[in-house]
C-alpha cells in the first residue's frame, strides 16, 4: 500500500482531506460519547424507562449486611450484558427467583408478570440465543430498574403507567417466538419447577410463585395441556383469585386479538396474490392462539368467566377451521402448463416471458442469462419481456441471470426441441421453466379446492384440486 | 467491497470496527459522531432487524468531501461483539474495505480479544479475504483504566497477543474520553481510501 509517484498527489490530497476532517475534537460541541448517545435514536434509549426515584428500600429488600438485595441481580445482568453464557443465564434466573421471593405478598403478586417475562427472556436466551435480540440484556436491565422502583414505591399504581407498562411491553417484544422444540424443553423444565414449587405452597408468596411459573409455561407453547390440571388455583386463596382474574382478562384480550388483529390480516393475506406464505403463517399463528385459549379455558374450569372472554367469530364469514383446511384460493386465474411430465399452475402476473426462443437459448444449461433472449443485433431485451421485468432498464436486464428449474426427476435441464420457455419473475428473483405444453388460462371457480403449503423450501404455494386432479401452483415468493 | 459509482463520481468505503463484546466499538462511533462537524457526518443509526436472524449494527456515514472530482464517503460500522452473534458479525463484515480491531485491555478479557481476532480472520477468509492484506489498525481501548485498581493488560502484553503476526499500526485510546479515537480513525481512513483507490480506481484515472 505504498505510494508510487504518479499517485502521490492524489493520495496526498486524500491524506490532507482526512487530516482536516479528522482532527481531534474538530466538532463544534465537545460532548462525551455518553452524552452523544442521548440524541442517537436507538431503540433502547427511546424506550428506556424513567430512572427510578431514590426511594428508601424496605427492610425486607435489604440484605443481612444492609446492602441492596438487588445487587446480585445487577451483577448477574451486567455479566450477561458482557457475555451471554449458560452459567450467567442460570445464575441470573436463580437470583431473579430469590428476589421475587423476598417481595411483600401484594407486590410479589402485582409484579408476577415482570418476573415471569424476565425469566422467559432468560430461558429463550439459554435455548435459542441467536433468536434473541442483542438488546435483550438491556431490556432485562430495564426490568431490574422497574423492580427497584417498585420495591421503593408505596403504591404501585403510581408507577404503573410510567414504568410497569412500558417495561412489560419491552419485555414482551423482546421475547422471541421459539417454535416446536422450545415447548418440549419448557415442559421438561416445568416438571422441575412444579416439583420444587409444591412444598413451598405453604406461604402465599410461594404459592403465587408456583402458580405464576405455571402460568408462564401455559403461555409459552402448544404442548402444555398435561400441565394445566396441576395448576394449584383452587387452594391458593387470594393469590389464586387474582390469578384467575388475570387469566380471564388475558382470555378476553386474547379473544379480541384473534378477532380484531389476526383474522382480518389473515383474510387480507388470503385475498392478496403473492402473500400465500404469510397467509399460511398467520393461519398457523391463529390456530396456536386458539389452542392456547382453549387450554386456558379448560384449566380454569368453573372459574372461567364466559362473559369476560366472549367467543368471537371470525370476520368475513370464514370459520376458524375453514381458514386452515378449506382455504380460499388467493388467485382468480392461474396458467396451467405441463412441466416435467406434470400439470402445474403458474401465476399469470409473475410470467414475464413465454415462447419459443432462439436455439442458442436452449443450450443455456442450469442458468439462463436474460440477455440471450435478445433477437438480432439491434434488438432490445426489454421488448421481449413483460410485467415486472419490463420495468428494468436494458443495462440491468443484460446483467440478469436466473436459474432454470429442474423437473422432479432432476435430470438434465436441457429442453426438447418443441419445448417452450416460461420465465417467472418477482422482486428481483426469477426462475425459468422449459414447458412441454404451452400455458392455458384457468379461471378459479368456487368448486375448486385450495390447500396452501407453508414449506419455504419449495416454490409450490399450494395444491389446487380441479375436478379430482391435484395441480401444484408454482410461485415466486417474497424473500 | 467499496461502492464506486463512476457516473456520479462517488466512492463509498466501508470501515468496520470489530472486537469482543463491550470493548467500546459503539463508544468509538459515538465519540466520532459527537465530535464531527454536522456537515461532514450523517445520522448515526442503530439498525436492528428481527426475523430469521437478528441483525444489529451501528452505522455512521462520514463525508470526506470532493477530491479530484470524486465525492469520497466513509461508512463506519460496528458489529455485535458477543460470541453468540457470529452470523450477524459475519454479515456486517461483508464488503468491508478497512478494519479497526478494538481490543479490551481488561485482564479478564484477554482470551476474548484473541478469540475475536481469530474470528475476524476466519470470517474474512470465508469471503475470500486475508486479514494481512486488508487495511487494519488495532486500537487498545480503555487506557483510562490503567491507573485504576482494575487489572488491565500492558501494551506489551496486548502487542504480544494481538499484533505479533500482523504488525499493524496500533493506537492507545479511551473511547469514553475521546483520546486516540480520531488518531485511529484517521489512520484507518487513509489506509482504506488508498486501498480502495489503488484497487479500483487509479488505473482508470491515470
Describe this structure in words.
The complex is a heterodimer of chains A (479) and B (206). Chain A is an alpha+beta fold. Chain A folds into two domains: 275 residues, no CATH class; 142 residues, no CATH class. Chain A has 16 helices and eleven strands. In chain A, strands 8-1-2-11-10-9 form a six-stranded mixed beta sheet. The radius of gyration of chain A is 30 Å and the shape is flat. Chain A starts with a helix and ends in a 5-residue tail after the last strand. Chain B is of the alpha/beta class. Chain B has a single domain, classed as Rossmann fold (3-Layer(aba) Sandwich). Helix content of chain B is 34%, strand content 26%. Chain B has five helices and eight strands; from the N terminus they run ββαβββαβαβαβα. In chain B, strands 1, 2, 3, 4, 5, 6, 7 and 8 form an eight-stranded mixed beta sheet that branches. Chain B is globular and about 55 Å long. Chain B starts with a strand and ends with a helix. Chains A and B meet through helix 1 and helix 2 of A and helix 1, strand 3, strand 4 and helix 5 of B.
Strand count, sense and closure of the main sheet of chain B?
8 strands, mixed
Percent of residues in helices of chain A: 40-55%
CATH uppermost class of chain B: Alpha Beta
Number of strands of chain A: 11
CATH architecture of chain B: 3-Layer(aba) Sandwich
Short descriptors:
heterodimer; A: 479 residues; alpha+beta; 2 domains; 6-stranded mixed sheet; 16 helices; B: 206 residues; alpha/beta; Rossmann fold; 8 strands; 34% helix; 26% strand; globular
In short:
Chain A has 479 residues and is an alpha+beta fold. Chain A has helices at residues 5-21, 33-36, 43-47, 71-82, 86-102, 105-110, 112-127, 136-152, 157-174, 181-197, 204-220, 237-271, 276-300, 320-325, 381-384, 394-399, and strands spanning 333-339, 342-346, 351-355, 367-369, 401-403, 420-426, 429-435, 437-443, 449-452, 460-466, 469-474.
Describe the secondary structure blueprint for this structure:
The complex is a heterodimer of chains A (479) and B (206).
Chain A: H1 5-21, H2 33-36, H3 43-47, H4 71-82, H5 86-102, H6 105-110, H7 112-127, H8 136-152, H9 157-174, H10 181-197, H11 204-220, H12 237-271, H13 276-300, H14 320-325, E1 333-339, E2 342-346, E3 351-355, E4 367-369, H15 381-384, H16 394-399, E5 401-403, E6 420-426, E7 429-435, E8 437-443, E9 449-452, E10 460-466, E11 469-474
Helix pairs in contact in A: 4-5, 4-8, 5-7, 7-8, 7-9, 7-11, 8-9, 10-11, 11-12, 12-13
Chain B: E1 3-5, E2 10-18, H1 25-35, E3 45-49, E4 55-67, E5 70-78, H2 86-93, E6 98-103, H3 110-126, E7 136-140, H4 155-163, E8 170-172, H5 181-205
Parallel strand pairs in B: 2-5, 2-6, 6-7, 7-8
Antiparallel strand pairs in B: 1-2, 3-4, 4-5
Amino acid at each position: 500500500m505504498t505510494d508510487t509517484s504518479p499517485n502521490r498527489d492524489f493520495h496526498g490530497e486524500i491524506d490532507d482531506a482526512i487530516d482536516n476532517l479528522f482532527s481531534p475534537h474538530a466538532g463544534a460541541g465537545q460532548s462525551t460519547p455518553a452524552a452523544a448517545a442521548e440524541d442517537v435514536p436507538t431503540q433502547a434509549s427511546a424506550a428506556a424507562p424513567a430512572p427510578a426515584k431514590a426511594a428508601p428500600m424496605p427492610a425486607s429488600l435489604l440484605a443481612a449486611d444492609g446492602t441492596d438485595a438487588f445487587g446480585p441481580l445487577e451483577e448477574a445482568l451486567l455479566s450477561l450484558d458482557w457475555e451471554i453464557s449458560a452459567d450467567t443465564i442460570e445464575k441470573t434466573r436463580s437470583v431473579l427467583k430469590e428476589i421475587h421471593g423476598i417481595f411483600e405478598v401484594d407486590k410479589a403478586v402485582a409484579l408476577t408478570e415482570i418476573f415471569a417475562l424476565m425469566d422467559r427472556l432468560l430461558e429463550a436466551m439459554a435455548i435459542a440465543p441467536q433468536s434473541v435480540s442483542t438488546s435483550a440484556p438491556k431490556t432485562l436491565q430495564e426490568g431490574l430498574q422497574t423492580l427497584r422502583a417498585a420495591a421503593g414505591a408505596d403504591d404501585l399504581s403510581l408507577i404503573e403507567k410510567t414504568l410497569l407498562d412500558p417495561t412489560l411491553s419491552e419485555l414482551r417484544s423482546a421475547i422471541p417466538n421459539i417454535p416446536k422444540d422450545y415447548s418440549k424443553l419448557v415442559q421438561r423444565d416445568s416438571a422441575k419447577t412444579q416439583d420444587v414449587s409444591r412444598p413451598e405452597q405453604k406461604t402465599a408468596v410461594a404459592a403465587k410463585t408456583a402458580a405464576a411459573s405455571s402460568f408462564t409455561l401455559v403461555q409459552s407453547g402448544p404442548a402444555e395441556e398435561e400441565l394445566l390440571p396441576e395448576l394449584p388455583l383452587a387452594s391458593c386463596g387470594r393469590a389464586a383469585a387474582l390469578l384467575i382474574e388475570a387469566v380471564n382478562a388475558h382470555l378476553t384480550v386474547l379473544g379480541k386479538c384473534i378477532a380484531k388483529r389476526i383474522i382480518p390480516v389473515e383474510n387480507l393475506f388470503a385475498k392478496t396474490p403473492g402473500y400465500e406464505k404469510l397467509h399460511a403463517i398467520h393461519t398457523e399463528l391463529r390456530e396456536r392462539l386458539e389452542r392456547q385459549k382453549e387450554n386456558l379455558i379448560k384449566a380454569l374450569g368453573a372459574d372461567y368467566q364466559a362473559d369476560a372472554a366472549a367467543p368471537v367469530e371470525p370476520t368475513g364469514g370464514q370459520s376458524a377451521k375453514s381458514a386452515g383446511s378449506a382455504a380460499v384460493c388467493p388467485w382468480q386465474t392461474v396458467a396451467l402448463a405441463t412441466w416435467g411430465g406434470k400439470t402445474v399452475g403458474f401465476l399469470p402476473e409473475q410470467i414475464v416471458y413465454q415462447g419459443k426462443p432462439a436455439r442458442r437459448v436452449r443450450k443455456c444449461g442450469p442458468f439462463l442469462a436474460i440477455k440471450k433472449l435478445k433477437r438480432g443485433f439491434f434488438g432490445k431485451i426489454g421488448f421481449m419481456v413483460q410485467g415486472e421485468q419490463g420495468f428494468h432498464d436494458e443495462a440491468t436486464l443484460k446483467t440478469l441471470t436466473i436459474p432454470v428449474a429442474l423437473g422432479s426427476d432432476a435430470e438434465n435441464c436441457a429442453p426438447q426441441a418443441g419445448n417452450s420457455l416460461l420465465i417467472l419473475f418477482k422482486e428481483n428473483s426469477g426462475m425459468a421453466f422449459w414447458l412441454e405444453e404451452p400455458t392455458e388460462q384457468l379461471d378459479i371457480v368456487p368448486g375448486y379446492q385450495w390447500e396452501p403449503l407453508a414449506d419455504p423450501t419449495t416454490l409450490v404455494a399450494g395444491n389446487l384440486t380441479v375436478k379430482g386432479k391435484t395441480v401444484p401452483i408454482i410461485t415466486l415468493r417474497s424473500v | 467491497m467499496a461502492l464506486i459509482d463512476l457516473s456520479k463520481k462517488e466512492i463509498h468505503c466501508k470501515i468496520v470496527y470489530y472486537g469482543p463484546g463491550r470493548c467500546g466499538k459503539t463508544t468509538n462511533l459515538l465519540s466520532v459522531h459527537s465530535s464531527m462537524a454536522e456537515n461532514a457526518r450523517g445520522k448515526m443509526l442503530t439498525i436492528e432487524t428481527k426475523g430469521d436472524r437478528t441483525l444489529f449494527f451501528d452505522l455512521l456515514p462520514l463525508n470526506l468531501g470532493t477530491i479530484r472530482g470524486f465525492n469520497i464517503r466513509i461508512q463506519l460500522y460496528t458489529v455485535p461483539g458477543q460470541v453468540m452473534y457470529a452470523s450477524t458479525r459475519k454479515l456486517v463484515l461483508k464488503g468491508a474495505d478497512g478494519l479497526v480491531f478494538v481490543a479490551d485491555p481488561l485482564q479478564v478479557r484477554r482470551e476474548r480479544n484473541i478469540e475475536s481476532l481469530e474470528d475476524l480472520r476466519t470470517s474474512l477468509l470465508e469471503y475470500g479475504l486475508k486479514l494481512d492484506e486488508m487495511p487494519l489498525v488495532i486500537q487498545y481501548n480503555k487506557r483510562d483504566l490503567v491507573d485504576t485498581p482494575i487489572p488491565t493488560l500492558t501494551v506489551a502484553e496486548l502487542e504480544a497477543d494481538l499484533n505479533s503476526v500482523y504488525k499493524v499500526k496500533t493506537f492507545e485510546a479511551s473511547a469514553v474520553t475521546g483520546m486516540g479515537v480520531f488518531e485511529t480513525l484517521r489512520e484507518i481512513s487513509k489506509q482504506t481510501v488508498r486501498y480502495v483507490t489503488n484497487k479500483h480506481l487509479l488505473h482508470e484515472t491515470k
